[in-house]
């Protein structure tokens, strides 16, 4: 696999994990259960994971479309 495909694969994994953490945060928030991490923490971790994945995706798209000037 070339480097771009590895980055896209990594972004997909991080995005899926981030989405899962966000869903756990929403479910924990609605159920009022005590977890080792608060519902806000799970949700924040999910948001950060999805934002990281989107950043990697957009960076790869920019490089693949030839808009990389640097």
Query: Number of DSSP helices?
Result: 2
CA-atom Rg in angstroms: 15 Å
The tally of strands reads 0
Largest sheet: number of strands, sense, barrel closure = none
Order of helices and strands: HH
What count of domains describes the coordinates? 1
β-strand amount: under 5%
The residue fraction in helices comes out at: over 70%
Give the low-confidence spans: none
Structural class determined from secondary elements: mainly alpha
Question: Ends: how far apart?
Answer: 24 Å
* Shape estimate: elongated
Output mean pLDDT.
Answer: 81
Brief characterization of the structure:
With 70 residues, the protein is mostly helical. 79% of the residues lie in helices and 0% in strands. The protein has helices spanning 3-31, 39-64.
Structure write-up:
By secondary structure, this protein is mainly α. The protein has one domain. Helices cover 79% and strands 0% of the residues. It has helices at residues 3-31, 39-64. The protein is elongated, with a radius of gyration of 15 Å. The mean pLDDT is 81.
Protein topology:
Layout: H1 3-31, H2 39-64
Helix pairs in contact: 1-2
